[in-house]
Amino acid sequence: MPDLFSFKNLCHTLDNERIIKESAAVRAGQILAIQGPSGSGKSTLLKMLARLLPSESGEVFLAGQSWTEYTPQEWRVKIHYYPQYPVLFAGSVAENLQMPFTLRQVQSNAFNLEDALISLDELGLSRNILDQEARTLSGGEAARLALIRSLVIQPTILLLDEPTAHLDKESSRRVLSLLKHWVMSEPERSVIMVTHNAEDLNGFKYITWLHLGSRMEENKHE
Fold it and tell me: Which whole-number Å values give the CA distances from 151 to 11, 88, 118, 178, in the listed order?
């Protein structure tokens, strides 16, 4: 089976003495799990893959097609980044869920309210919050809502930066269950996830590991 997503020698300078230079690949239905000590460049790598940070060298491919063949906006719809601290916008929960569909790159898809409602149920969020001001949600509620907002645009690759870091045990269980279902429910999907907790990956069928830090190159200037 060919790789769905791959990157080779993707490079970025972290500071004056260290660079990250990483390669990995993931097939459809797989999870690429990224681990490493604090400061090893895990979040930086995700942001490079999402084209939110420039890479100094390297190549990235989606289904054999170079990322240079996409505009950054088109790429970020297909390769969608979910940060550690997701942002909600002024307006109701429903307006936040529909917000991505105001973007030209997403208008080819239609917002599916029923899918969003099912995801609310699966993540333990009441359907009654749709009319609530999104910024009044608790931190855990906001994180789960932002994940649903990421899923409704139907990305091919979901880049997750510690998606359970700020959730209680039950909310974490629900999030991971939803992600397991999401990655297997369509033939061309994969997840790239930064995690400090290997238990988060229990239940995922196919996992590839990328460990940052141990192979980090030194770029010392005398």
Answer: 28, 15, 12, 10
